[in-house]
Amino acid sequence: MCRMVKKRLKPNSLKKLTREAWMAKYDVLIVGAGIAGLYAAMGLPQNKSVLVICKDVPWECNTFYAQGGMTTALDKNDIALHVRDTLEAGAFHNDKEAVEILSRTSLETTKDIIRSGMEFDRDASGKILYAKEGAHSIARVLHAGGDATGRYLHHFMMMRNKHGLQRNTLVYDLLIEDGRCYGVKATVNYQPTTIYADSVIIASGGVGSLYQYNTNSRTVSADIHGICVEKGIALEDMEMMQFHPTVFVKTPYARKLLLTEALRGEGAHIVNEAGERFLFDADPRGELASRDIVSRAIFNYKREHPGEEVYLDFSMFDKEFFHSRFPNITKQFASLGYYFPQDRVPISPAFHYAVGGIKSDINGCIDGIEGLYVIGEAASTGVHGANRLASNSLLEGVVFAKRVTDYILSKETQRVKPPKFDNDHGNILHKENDKIYKQKLRQIMWEEIGIVRTKSGLLKAKNMIYDMKNREIGRLLALRLNTASAIVEAALDRKISLGTHYIESVKA
Ligand code: SIN
């Protein structure tokens, strides 16, 4: 399928050149096998040589863990309202054109996905069921398998993918020279490898592993954002980090357990120890306010009532309904000793989604770098403003995947001969003390660049991050630290609270 870079291999040098033997050149290389990467692959015809790569197994991605659903405009008449809800949730910091594209295109992409065989949940008469979630004016969220929308969508797209997919491929550099991207350097099954491509689409997700408490797949660790910082590629809105309000964090695993927003959409309550709902003090919409408001209200409640828990309460649900609407949450929590709907579960906000990212235009193009594109959570098109509306992320994945592939296919193909890239960090990805520093970084990010920030906390974090950068560290940690620096610098630059960025002045 792929065109190999022409290279004569002398028989006696074969052993030495195994690395070169991997040097394939593709039309399109897609970095990431979540919804954005896979839908981009679905949009590229079979006569293109396309490779999708992912760091681990393909289901280790945020798409796989998405529970609630995928927003869609219900019809043409709903576009204006969906746009308004998205802008309001985003504190009007959004790029309005991107939001209009998101909503308008959803009519096309949803139809395409359903026509291609994706089965969303339907009622007994076969009509699609739409759920309501926080900050949506109406029910317009598609779901599948009850509370396993991401897993179903991911499986569906994996089955439809007609191109090569290569796992265990960890990108540690982008091959960029004179404003053009030629491919990536990556370890493939731990072996340093060069992969050339005329077009490289970054669809590698956000920054979850930077935070001590997060809902993200362990593979989502901000490496490519860090490479962009190194190469002078602009990141945007990096202070806008979204915290999901209802997460069970009392597990030893890095990924904390999400309790989907759809639970509140169906009527679950957030209560204190005494069973009282306190969110109405923060917003008249109570549990259905936008995520930034709900997360902050829980954070503040806990701060004002040290030692007290906050709970998600399902006692109002009929047992049969709950089990059929939320089968996976029911099973997962039963294995932890919580039996729903009768048991309430202690919750905390946790990092969930990078609203900001690698700056791109509405076609996924990155200003100043030919042949390099970004889509999905990794990108910042401005579509989410200062805070993402619930379930707009799977939609963003498909809409901007469609736009980037339409764009690439509409362009005259430029066959480019890659120059030689000498610098290779392949053998120093990790160093001895990285684990300790990574843990320290997660703690700093959570405590100082989290839900509520202060100027002094941000300055302290900035200092600690720079200190770690000057230590003996491996490349992957250095990349994480680049991204962390970008977040702290952006947070320091925005002096006034907006959306997910909440800055508190310390009382004297
Ligand atoms: C959820 O199910 O609450 C998460 C979905 C999203 O992040 O929009």
Describe the structure.
Among the domains are: 107 residues, Alpha-Beta Complex (Flavocytochrome C3, Chain A, domain 1), CATH 3.90.700; 60 residues, Methane Monooxygenase Hydroxylase, Chain G, domain 1 (Up-down Bundle). The chain is built from 15 helices and 22 strands. The strands form five sheets. Strands 1, 2, 3, 7, 8, 9, 10, 18 and 19 form a nine-stranded mixed β-sheet that branches. A five-stranded antiparallel β-sheet has the order 13-12-16-15-14. The chain is globular, with a radius of gyration of 23 Å. 53% of the residues are buried. By secondary structure, it is of the alpha/beta class. The termini are far apart. A hairpin with a 2-residue loop joins β18 and β19. Helix content is 33%, strand content 19%. The N terminus is likely disordered. It binds succinic acid (SIN). Succinic acid (SIN) binds next to α8 and β16.
Q: Which residues form runs of ≥5 with pLDDT under 50?
A: 1-22
Q: How does the overall form come out from the CA principal axes? A: globular
* CATH fold type of the domain at 245-351: Flavocytochrome C3, Chain A, domain 1
Which CATH class of the domain at 245-351? Alpha Beta
Let me know the CATH homologous superfamily of the domain at 245-351: Succinate dehydrogenase/fumarate reductase flavoprotein, catalytic domain
Mean of the pLDDT scores?
Answer: 94
CATH architecture of the domain at 245-351: Alpha-Beta Complex
Helix-strand category:
alpha/beta
User: How can the largest sheet be summarized?
Assistant: 9 strands, mixed
- The number of helical segments is 15
First-residue to last-residue Cα separation: 67 Å
Helix content: 25-40%
Small molecules held by this entry: succinic acid
Number of strands: 22
Strand content: 15-25%
Estimated radius of gyration: 23 Å
